[in-house]
Design brief:
The complex is a heteropentamer, with 1 copy of chain A (about 400 residues), 1 copy of chain B (about 300 residues), 2 copies of chain C (about 375 residues) and 1 copy of chain D (about 325 residues). Chain A has about 400 residues and is α/β, with parallel strands linked by helices. In chain A, about 50% of the residues lie in helices and about 15% in strands. In chain A, the strands form 4 sheets. A 5-stranded mixed sheet of chain A has the order 2-1-3-12-6, with helices on both faces. In chain A, helix 9 packs across helix 19, helix 12 crosses helix 20 and helix 19 packs antiparallel against helix 20. Chain A starts with a strand and ends with a helix. The relative contact order of chain B is 0.13. In chain B, helix 2 packs across helix 13 and helix 7 packs antiparallel against helix 10. The longest helix of chain B is centred in the N-terminal third of the chain and has 32 residues. Chain B is an all-alpha fold and about 300 residues long. Helix content of chain D is about 60%, strand content about 0%. The two termini of chain D are about 40 Å apart. The chains are: A alpha/beta (about 400), B mainly alpha (about 300), C alpha+beta (about 375), D mainly alpha (about 325). Chains in contact: A-B, A-D, B-C, B-D, B-E, C-D, C-E, D-E. Chains A and D meet through strand 1, helix 1, strand 2, helix 2 and helix 13 of A and helix 3, helix 7, helix 12 and helix 13 of D. Bound molecules: adenosine-5'-triphosphate (ATP) (2 copies) and magnesium ion (2 copies). One adenosine-5'-triphosphate sits at the interface of chains E and C. Chain D: Belongs to the binding-protein-dependent transport system permease family. Chain D: Its main location: membrane. Chain D: Keywords: Membrane, Transmembrane, Transmembrane helix, Transport.
Chain lengths: ~400, ~300, ~375, ~325, ~375
């Protein structure tokens, strides 16, 4: 059966990864009809929602798992996958299990998580430090301490793109790394406003202020432009997700030699279990329903998981697969995952609406030097207090 | 003898009425219907999907306490005022230049118009580069020896909106120019002659005779520009994404972000209701004067 | 007299269409020149060239002794009324009148006064605050005249300014224009189709045809001694009657024979001395023919039958046939004459006009 | 000669023209002109159009400067699209490519991947054409007829509807997405080409109607009257009198619609199915990937390629920018 | 005779401006009606109403017995020539002419033939392939006439069709129109400012003023027996001479006294039987005054001094003063008279027109 699958994986690596799913699915005798639309949130989502509400749904669609799809599920537009999940024993295979939680509503399972993306990385250009007579830092504090010297040398200590999500990402990384995973979970998950406003958190905000200072000469928009600054030595480092590694590879840089990656800023080595998931809209056609089930199974099959994640550069959602081909930094990630140092992504914990408010706050904070760390903290605390 | 009174006349002008059916349907069903729907749902706390969970004015409270929204409005006002003035000014001046029976008119016109054909998703990037202080114009000028030259509109929160304006005008004036050119081409040659005899300088002829004669075209242009301003979105997204910080946010982006990024439809609807309200307050009295019954 | 406007070998073409061909014309200082000519002969084009609104193809134009061939219209010191009015549609009539003056930086009071004066002359005072779209054809035309009048220029160019007005108003304006001309003594070039206007207003009339001037002379001369058959035919309504025939000479006395009739030409003064005999046209104006009792004493008499009667009130125009010839005669307004009547008309050959058959120029 | 006093000194300044007044007048009266020709010295014949007159310098100078501003981004885009990625990453955006490569263009047109389909922009090209033609024709047809009805055949209430329409021009598109999804779903056109064409027509209607209405209103009423007497009805007047006289405004409308519809992405993708997706979906996918390496050269090439169709239309339609309501056809 | 066009209590306003006021008019089948009136009196507006191009404010219009008040212009069976030409600028002249015929679905050959015929009559054959912008004013007007002519409608409406043409062409076209009318015998309503046209073409003339019809009568009647002073003044050029004075009665014999002079009115026929004595206007046309030898035998004689001489060629207009009165007299074209001459003119009071002083209507 032809099954239309929409997603926003359009770049080279992503597309290659999707191709693995498609291959595996086609092997079951069905046909994967690709409906790729680039540009996640803003662009693709209204299209997908319109298709679903317009009464002309696709067979399956990518969605950030988390709370985004809740309403679609509540509106009864999404197919309940519980029986398939039980049959495939997903509760056991999926690791960390929290991934499945975010697909669950009222005890029923509605989506298939397919990968884990880690964001908590600091990327450093070794040569820049050496040239300036500095040791390559091993954690955030050393890095921050080296900043003034770098600035004197005309080097931007921290490269940061201007897009809002990049600043938010930086803050979240600082929060998890410096305040620790528990604090993170409390604040985002339990909406603990008191903690958010506490002394303990103040140091995170101070660090954010430092980061703001370190990045004040960074005049680029895209994250990859920022990465290019690091590669070319215009900047010393960047806080970015694991996808930044691709840029280093394209520039023929070697991990450990030319650049260093520090998960969790070298302080708390944790990984956020954010990632992607697939949902299956309800349709009348039994043949399609059948094919949807097939696809759900295929996506979680160990073979497909390995093939997919190797291409995608992300981590598999199954703990029981072997990723021998992974590179250095990726292996570091796998280790952390194996140790169980995982946290849930904010998507899973907080509504998109509240996250946007947090987003806005940090965008403003990083761009407005006159906004003090204290101000930011108190605003943050009030957002957390009102969040849902 | 037939009645002396005016007969029932619904069937007079029947073709015109038939021809106006699409307009009537669009106006009533789509625009009025859609607007009513939007206003209605702005009183709900709809998130991803429109739902009838009414929360009164809560969305509006939040809207007006959001600094992002306030900045958006301010930016829109600045951008709108400048964009309107400069689009009309530049558009008209270019059209007037092209109307001087010049050679290569087609080439010039196409050059001035081409930006309109290119989607802003990427041209925004080109502008972003050109205005980037590290490798754009500032860089070039500085490397020519003028070290203190400063030109970084997109990276300075104070003036970022003007940086966006530079690209906005680049993209939009060509069309206005074409519109004006079409208007100029509709003006009787003898009027020019009369003005020449009257010894009226060129600029005055344009200002006091030709422009007033082109009233209709100007109104069209103003509506075109103004509606474009209200909807300005991709220009900002492509160049600054609303940054630095939120210093270049605009209302349409606020609406879009609220609806599709934050997934708070209610908030998006409230913001667009406010935008519409402003438009209605400005447009309706004007439209009444302009199109209202007074003229035959 | 020093010419105020002098045009040398002017030519103008629209693409391959030569509209003006090597035209020469001198207009004296303060002269009132009327351009007459059939539709499409280039009158408006000539005015446009003088005004500088068309770039000439060849030749020169002098105004006030200055070569203005390449000058801007506004520097030529002219005022112009357009055949198509060309009023500024969005300004009121008052605005149309005052715009040029404001632009010249005249004081407000002066402008006001000039506009009022012109409005009064043209009887458009109540219309001063209307826009052109709300005016009737004639009202628009008057506004257009007003716009030129207020300028008090050295040279006025009028392109059929009165053609849409009623006879009474036209007569009034005609007199006004004449008086204006006498008062201001500026040069005026005036295109019209109305022969009464031409005859009464003009110091000299230029008859144009196909982009050239056929005759340039005083109204009286043009009427009584047209330089060629075209001019003779063009001027006068109804048009001149023509006989085709032979000019014969017998001992210094000339006769004209046509269709079996022979007229003695004893009283006729030849243009350039006695001509050679040969084929010729003999023309006589309808108003120079007499009928009834007067005809009996006329030198030449023709019997005919009435074909058409056009009572004009003041006169009656009668068309009648004699032999194979159809002639017009103008009679008294009270003439009691009917279709089919037999009449006798007579005329004095001294009042006739003779034209050479081939060159068509006056003998 | 006695000069009449000038009452309008200001407006009729007699600048001493370029060296003609004195000498030629002497010549004139000296009757020194040979063989009956009255030509004398001084300007004669066609006014020479100096290539470098002040006016021309001003006009062409301004235009050229303005064109440079307009062309700068295009230059950057073209130059970038001809460079390889390493050169872009390191080089100056203004510098010409060291090694010209057409690979990005090839890639943009035929190889760039959209998900699994790696056939670049060429994939959606015919869909775009299929969407463009009916949408442009329908929207211009409806709006121009509408504008004509509003300008020349007003009926009771027509202005009210028109006002609503104008207000509609200001509604952000995004707001209308869901209501229109619902409407199309209810009339069963959701996901079809027809539905998309209707959507384009609806959103084009306010501006286009205004455009045409105001232009037609400037056509002299008497022409319209003459045509009615000539027995031309609503449609005959429209097609045979109004349309031919309004070519420039049709060109503007066409420019507006061709560009808008050709570059539209949101509607094309929201209101249709994947097999009808326009070329811009591909463009968006090439350009808008959130992660992974951005291939600027391919992006630039793709954008220019996408713009070629509207550009061609601009250029071709230039010939239609003739004088509209021909001068003097109407007196008064 | 069954009226072809019948207008009942027609009124029309532009906003607060009442242009036509309760106007009634019947035009007979095949009649040629000329509308005359000063500029802005509502002539074009009336034509537009008849054509259905303006929605009337009140009243009814019948054409051929059918109430067409609310019908479409094209259904009324009319052809119209506009004052402003209104040629379709994008069509050639041939296109302009054939447009209406094509709309009516006529066969190609027939269209071709009609266009050629009209073009021939109007002498625009060489222009058939030009566009209006490349025509002179008069050429445009002819094209506009052609467009109406080809339609062969029941009713033709002409709004000053000949106003921009030269006298010769105008005379030709006038005859053509007259012949056309005789041949087709369709009803024609014709607006003009030219009294010669009005007098020669009209079966009846309607004199309009301020949106109302003052007199509707045959040209002869209008000229010789104007219904009121306005009409008397409006018709005739130069305009009628008026004396202000007293009408006196003495035993059935009437006399008129003005400025010390007394004229016997013995030959005068009163409009509505013998009127009461009282203040009145006495009017006499310039062409009804005689001078020279004839004046000696006239019933009334006036001595005066010549003030202005306008030689028209065919006639000479002379303005002279007698007492405090200024009068015009028309004399022969050859009259040898000069400014300042003393002259004696005479007239027959039977040819005069008497108007009541207050109502201004004919006595
Ligand atoms: N659209 C209009 N709006 C207001 N007033 C108008 C309009 N059209 C004409 N008028 C006025 O109505 C009156 C009659 O106009 P109309 O055109 O009928 O005059 P007319 O008799 O044809 O004059 P003319 O001989 O000068 O053409 C005039 O006073 C004119 O100013
Ligand atoms: N723009 C033009 N292009 C081509 N031919 C033209 C143009 N304007 C005028 N003509 C032609 O030039 C000739 C002279 O035109 P012009 O307007 O001078 O005539 P005119 O003497 O004023 O006639 P009228 O008395 O009818 O106004 C005409 O044959 C006309 O068709
Ligand atoms: Mg002319
Ligand atoms: Mg009129």
């Amino acid at each position: 059966t032809d099954l239309e699958v929409t997603h926003w994986w359009t770049s080279g690596g992503e597309a290659a990864a999707v191709a693995e799913f498609a291959k595996a699915f086609d092997a079951t005798g069905n046909k994967w009809v690709d409906g790729a639309i680039a540009g996640s949130g803003g662009t693709a989502r209204p299209i997908m929602i319109s298709r679903i509400t317009g009464g002309d749904p696709m067979g399956a669609t990518q969605f950030n798992h988390g709370r985004q799809a809740e309403e679609l599920v509540e509106a009864g537009l999404m197919r309940d996958l519980t029986d398939i999940a039980e049959e495939g024993n997903w509760k056991e295979v999926i690791h960390p299990s929290s991934l499945l939680d975010s697909c669950t509503l009222d005890g029923r399972i509605y989506c298939v998580p397919v990968n884990i993306h880690s964001q908590q990385w600091l990327w450093l250009n070794n040569k820049v430090f050496e040239d300036n007579g500095l040791a390559v830092p091993t954690n955030w504090d050393e890095y921050a301490a080296a900043a003034p010297k770098l600035q004197e040398a005309g080097i931007v200590p921290l490269a940061m793109g201007q897009q809002p999500w990049q600043t938010t990402l930086a803050f979240q990384v600082l929060l998890t790394a410096l305040a620790g995973p528990e604090a993170y979970t409390k604040i985002f998950g339990e909406k603990d406003a008191e903690l958010a406003g506490s002394e303990e958190m103040a140091k995170v905000f101070q660090a954010a202020a430092t980061a703001r200072d370190m990045s004040k000469d960074s005049n680029v928009q895209g994250w990859n432009d920022a990465t290019t600054m690091v590669i070319t030595g215009k900047a010393a480092g960047q806080i970015m997700g694991d996808w930044a590694q691709g840029e280093f590879q394209v520039a023929n840089q070697v991990a450990g030699e030319d650049y260093t990656c520090l998960p969790g800023l070298g302080v708390n080595e944790v990984i956020m279990t954010g990632g992607d998931a697939f949902y299956f809209p309800k349709v009348d056609d039994p043949a399609i329903t059948e094919a949807q089930g097939e696809l759900a199974k295929v996506m979680l099959s160990p073979e497909a998981q390995v093939a997919f994640n190797l291409k995608k550069g992300s981590l598999p959602v199954r703990g029981d697969v072997d990723l021998a081909a992974a590179n250095d930094c990726m292996k570091k990630g796998l280790d952390i995952l194996a140790k169980g140092n995982v946290i849930q992504s904010p998507d899973q914990l907080m509504s998109a609406d509240s996250l946007t408010q947090v987003n806005d706050l940090f965008v403003e904070f990083f761009n407005n030097p006159s906004m003090t760390a204290e101000d930011a903290q108190s605003m943050f605390a009030s957002i957390v207090g009102n969040a849902d | 003898m037939a009645a002396a009174t005016r007969p029932a006349r619904w069937h007079r002008n029947i073709s015109a009425k038939v021809a106006a059916v699409p307009m009537i349907i669009t106006a009533v069903v789509v625009f009025i219907g859609g607007t009513a729907w939007t206003v209605l749902y702005s009183f709900t706390n709809s998130k991803l999907l429109p739902r009838e969970k009414f929360v009164g004015l809560a969305q509006y409270d939040r809207l007006w306490s959001s600094s992002k929204w306030l900045i958006s409005i301010e930016n829109l006002a600045i951008y709108g005022a400048f964009s309107l003035i400069f689009s009309l000014l530049i558009g008209f001046m270019l059209a007037a230049l092209l109307d001087q029976k010049i050679r290569f008119e087609d080439t010039f016109r196409t050059i001035l118009l081409y930006p309109f054909a290119l989607s802003f998703i990427v041209t925004g990037l080109a502008w972003q580069w050109i205005l980037n202080p590290d490798f754009g114009i500032q860089h070039v000028v500085r490397s020519l020896g003028w070290e203190s030259f400063n030109f970084d509109p997109l990276y300075n929160p104070e003036i970022v909106i003007y940086g966006i304006l530079i690209a906005g005008l680049w993209q939009g004036t060509g069309l206005i120019m074409c519109l004006m050119l079409a208007g100029l081409r509709g003006i009787d040659e003898d009027i020019w002659k009369a003005a020449k005899i009257d010894g009226i300088p060129m600029w005055k002829t344009y200002l006091f005779i030709v422009i007033p004669m082109m009233r209709g075209i100007f109104i069209t242009a103003i509506v075109l520009i103004a509606s474009g301003i209200i909807k300005v979105y991709d220009l900002v997204v492509a160049q600054t994404g609303g940054g630095p910080g939120i210093s270049s946010e605009v209302p349409a982006k606020y609406v879009y972000d609220a609806m599709f990024l934050s997934q708070n439809l209610g908030q998006g609807f409230a913001a667009s209701t406010m935008m519409l309200l402003t438009v209605v307050i400005i447009v309706v009295p004007w439209a009444y004067l302009e199109f209202g019954g007074k003229r035959k | 007299m020093e010419p105020s406007i002098s045009i040398n070998n002017l030519s103008l073409s629209f693409g391959s269409l030569d509209v003006l061909k090597d035209l020469n014309l001198d207009v004296g200082q303060g002269e009132f020149l009327v351009l007459l000519g059939s539709s499409g002969c280039g009158k408006s084009t000539l005015l446009n060239c003088i005004a500088g609104l068309l770039d000439v193809t060849g030749g020169q134009i002098f105004i006030g002794g200055r070569n203005v061939t390449w000058e801007e219209p506004s520097q030529r010191g002219i005022g112009m009324v357009f055949q198509s009015y060309a009023l500024y549609p969005q300004m009121t009539v008052a605005g149309n009148l005052s715009f040029g003056l404001k632009n010249a930086g005249l004081p407000k009071a002066e402008i006001q006064e000039r506009v009022n004066r012109a409005a009064k002359v043209l009887q458009i005072e109540p219309l001063l605050n209307r826009k052109p779209a709300a005016l009737s054809g004639g009202q628009r035309q008057r506004a257009a005249i007003g716009r030129a009048l207020v300028r008090d220029a050295d040279v006025f160019l009028f392109d059929e300014p009165l053609s849409n007005l009623d006879a009474k108003l036209r007569a009034d304006l005609r007199v006004e224009i004449k008086q204006l001309h006498q008062k201001l003594s500026n040069t005026m070039i005036y295109v019209t189709h109305d022969q009464i206007e031409a005859m009464t207003l003009a110091d000299r009339i230029a008859i144009m045809r196909g982009g050239q001037i056929l005759q340039l002379a005083s109204p009286n001369e043009i009427y009584n001694r047209p330089a060629n058959k075209y001019v003779a035919e063009f001027i006068g309504s109804p048009t001149m009657n023509f006989f085709e025939g032979e000019l014969e000479e017998a001992g210094g006395n000339y006769r004209f024979t046509s269709g079996g009739k022979t007229f003695s030409l004893d009283g006729y003064t030849f243009q350039n001395g006695p001509p050679a005999a040969g084929a010729a046209w003999f023309g006589i104006r309808p108003e120079h023919m007499v009928s009834g009792a007067e005809a009996d004493t006329a030198l030449v008499r023709l019997d005919g039958q009435v074909e058409l009667v056009e009572p004009l009130g003041s006169d009656t125009l009668v068309r009648f046939t004699t032999g194979d010839q159809t002639l017009w005669v103008r009679m008294d307004g009270q003439a009691n004459i009917r279709h089919g009547d037999a009449i006798t008309v007579g005329f004095d050959p001294a009042r006739a006009n003779l034209f050479d058959k081939t060159s068509e120029s006056r003998l | 000669m006695t000069k009449t006093p000038h009452l309008l000194k200001g407006s009729m300044k007699y600048d001493a023209g370029p060296a003609e007044a004195g000498p030629d007048r002497a010549l004139r009266h000296g009757d020194g002109t040979p063989s009956g020709s009255r030509m004398v010295e001084g300007p004669a014949g066609r006014k020479p159009r100096k290539a470098l007159s002040r006016r021309n310098i001003l006009i062409y100078g301004t235009l050229i400067v303005v064109c440079l501003y307009y062309l700068l981004p295009l230059y950057v885009m073209i130059v970038t699209s001809l460079k390889g990625m390493p050169e872009i990453r390191l080089g100056n955006i203004f510098s010409p490519p060291v090694e010209i490569t057409f690979q990005p263009w090839v890639k943009a047109w035929a190889e760039a991947c959209t998900g699994l389909n790696c056939d670049g922009l060429s994939r959606g090209f015919f869909n775009s054409v299929k969407i463009l033609i009916p949408s442009v024709i329908l929207s211009i047809a409806i709006a121009s007829v509408n504008g004509y009805a509003l300008a020349n055949w007003r009926f009771k209430g027509s202005e009210t509807f028109f006002t609503i329409l104008i207000v509609g021009a200001f509604i952000p598109y995004q707001v209308m997405i869901y209501p229109i999804v619902i409407m199309l779903r209810e009339i069963g056109l959701y996901g079809s080409l027809t539905g998309l064409v209707i959507v384009h027509t609806i959103f084009g209607m306010p501006i286009l109607t205004l455009l045409f209405r105001n232009y037609f209103a400037s056509v002299p009423q008497e022409l319209f009257k003459a045509a009615r007497v000539d027995g031309a009805g609503f449609w005959a007047i429209y097609f045979q009198i109004m349309v031919p006289m309004s070519l420039p405004i049709f060109v503007v409308a066409m420019i507006l619609q061709v560009t808008g519809i050709w570059n539209d992405f949101l509607f094309g993708v929201i209101y249709t199915k994947p097999d009808l997706y326009p070329m811009t979906v591909q463009l968006n996918n090439i350009v808008n990937s959130t992660q992974g390496v951005k291939e600027y050269n391919v992006n630039m090439a793709a954008t220019i390629l996408t713009g070629l169709v509207p550009l061609t239309i601009y250029f071709i339609s230039g010939k239609l920018f003739v004088r509209g309501i021909a001068a003097g056809a109407v007196k008064g």
